[in-house]
Structure to design on (115 residues):
């Protein structure tokens, strides 16, 4: 069986890694080993931050709702959510925050209904 050298596949791997690290700073964009390590770290942070983004948006919705709830005469966000649950109104925070920002008259009706 003839001997197979790995030069072509190694070059392909190297080329693909270096293509993906374009724009990174210093040796991370030019040296294969540093580039590969940078990609591993970047992937780890990307995975973690995709999950973190969901928490950040939920916090944003809560802040917006709290402001809107206080404008409409309610005591606080937590009491508003508690009253919503008691009345079995199943609107999530994202939808409520969008109503508060984009359609304040609809949110005011919801707040008065819960009130």
């Amino acid at each position: 069986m003839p001997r197979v050298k790995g030069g072509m596949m190694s070059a392909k791997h190297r080329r693909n890694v270096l293509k993906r690290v374009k724009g990174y700073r210093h040796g991370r964009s030019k040296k294969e080993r540093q580039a590969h390590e940078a990609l591993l770290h970047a992937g780890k942070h990307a995975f973690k931050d995709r999950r973190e983004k969901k928490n950040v948006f939920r916090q944003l919705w809560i802040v917006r709702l709290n402001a809107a709830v206080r404008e409409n005469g309610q005591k606080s966000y937590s009491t508003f959510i508690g009253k919503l649950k008691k009345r079995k109104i199943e609107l999530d925070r994202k939808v409520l925050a969008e109503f508060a920002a984009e359609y304040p008259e609809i949110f005011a009706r919801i707040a008065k209904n819960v009130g």
